[in-house]
Design brief:
Pathway: Carotenoid biosynthesis; phytoene biosynthesis; all-trans-phytoene from geranylgeranyl diphosphate: step 1/1. This protein has 15 helices and four strands. Bound molecules: geranylgeranyl diphosphate.
């Protein structure tokens, strides 16, 4: 066996849910055993297995990104060559500083859960705890690219978006990675990806998620849903960590930290899905695993009717438990991040996780009630997040399953 598995799979005893996996060693076979209602999986290498699960396929991206980070740590750096001029009268230094400022403005425009809490905290951290001068926040260029990508299928022009437009967006992405930005925001991203060991794959995969959203409105099982969640949110975790950085004192393997980042993206997206069930159904979309709905005696019609029944409550309990397991997995990696990144990440994790509590507090009515975390709770989470952020990398490696 090449690696004990990370975690995975859960569900209330009466409605166990197989969540899936992430293991080491790429092609692998899974063995499941049930223990107290929680399924644990372990891996063993397989010769060739064409029908690999989504988790196994996604884990290959994790390994690829981790390998790139290790390579860059050895000193192989890319350099930015803005070989296509951008409109305006700027030197390259000015241009980048203006570009990052604009990225900050765009993120402020979108400001909801993540920006609102994370960005001011980052500023506070920079001002009072790390440095007096505000550093450029390089993750902003990534966030803006993700927002723009999402806007293609979710924004005001979404009805005109075709797979061809996404192909053009992908071509542009290659240009950005090769130092040929089309505009300011691209220039900031070109700069970021030239400075940090960010792999293009998660970006391509996010575009793939948008393609999927155009053609698919139902998910047969959790394996399909997991892949979607990776595409649209897990990718963000993989894009961010190379920029946020890992604490120099961390003894955890790079792979395990990227895995935790992936888990946070998945947890956030699952939470989003559970919060927006009614809203999505009214747009003709059901992002819940159809086989699990059927097992619970539920169908799309029940969701459209939108009546909270005991069947629905029990089904939702299982879904919430699974999302929490992904948050648990993510938590193991936060302390391994660089000190300046830990607070915002803890803050967003604790805040987003509370949306699950809010769904419970709404008696699982996610058809007509939007679960949200009130301002006071949000405020109280900040010192809690700060307290956790003070704890740096664990000396005890048993907490992280994989080792360097
Ligand atoms: C845990 C470790 C090691 C690192 C952290 C790595 C990161 C930053 C992971 C987070 C990934 C992330 C932010 C994914 C996006 C998920 C998501 C569902 C975003 C939805 O954003 P909005 O649409 O603005 O949400 P609201 O509608 O709730 O405001």
């Amino acid at each position: 066996m090449s690696g004990v598995l990370l975690w995975v799979s859960c569900g209330p005893k009466e409605n166990p849910i197989s969540v899936g996996v992430a293991g080491r060693g790429g092609k692998s076979q899974r063995r499941f055993g049930l223990c107290n209602g929680i399924t644990f999986a372990s891996f063993s290498p397989a010769v060739t297995d064409p029908s690999r699960s989504s988790e196994e396929r996604v884990y290959e991206v994790v390994l690829k990104q981790a390998a790139l980070v290790k390579e860059q740590n050895k000193g192989t750096k890319r350099s930015l060559n803005l070989n296509k001029p951008i409109e305006g009268d700027f030197t390259q230094g000015d241009l980048l500083s203006v570009a990052y400022d604009r990225c900050g403005e765009v993120c402020a425009e979108y400001a909801k859960t993540f920006y609102l809490e994370a960005y001011p905290i980052r500023l506070v951290v920079h001002y009072f705890f790390v440095e007096i001068e505000i550093e450029i926040d390089y993750t902003l260029s990534i966030e803006v690219w993700c927002r723009r990508t999402d806007e293609l299928v979710d924004g005001p022009n979404a009805s005109h978006i075709t797979p061809k437009a996404l192909d053009r967006w992908e071509k542009r992405l290659y240009d950005v990675f090769e130092g040929r930005p089309y505009d300011m925001y691209d220039a900031a991203l070109s700069d970021t990806v030239s400075k940090y060991p960010v792999d293009i794959q998660p970006f391509k995969d996010m575009i793939e998620g948008m393609r999927l959203d155009l053609r698919k409105s139902r998910y047969n099982n959790f394996d399909e849903l997991y892949l979607y969640c990776y595409y649209v949110a897990g990718t963000v975790g993989l894009m961010s960590v190379p920029v946020m950085g890992i604490a120099p004192a961390s003894k955890a393997s790079t792979e395990s930290i990227y895995n935790a980042a992936l888990a946070l993206g998945i947890a956030n997206q699952l939470t989003n899905i559970l919060r927006d069930v009614g809203e999505d159904a009214r747009r003709g979309r059901v992002y819940l695993p159809q086989d699990e709905l059927a097992q619970a005696g539920l169908s799309d019609d029940d969701i459209l009717i939108g009546k909270v029944t005991d069947k629905w409550r029990s089904f939702m309990k299982g879904q919430i438990q699974r999302a929490r397991m992904f948050f648990d997995e993510a938590e193991k990696g936060v302390s391994e991040l660089s000190s300046a990144s830990r607070w915002p990440v803890w803050a967003s994790l604790l805040l987003y996780r509370q949306i699950l509590d809010a769904i419970e507090a709404n008696d699982y009515n996610n058809f007509t009630k939007r679960a949200y975390v009130g301002k006071l709770k949000k405020l109280l989470s900040l010192p809690a997040a700060y307290g956790r952020a003070l704890i740096g990398p664990s000396k005890n490696l048993t907490k992280m399953v994989t080792t360097k």
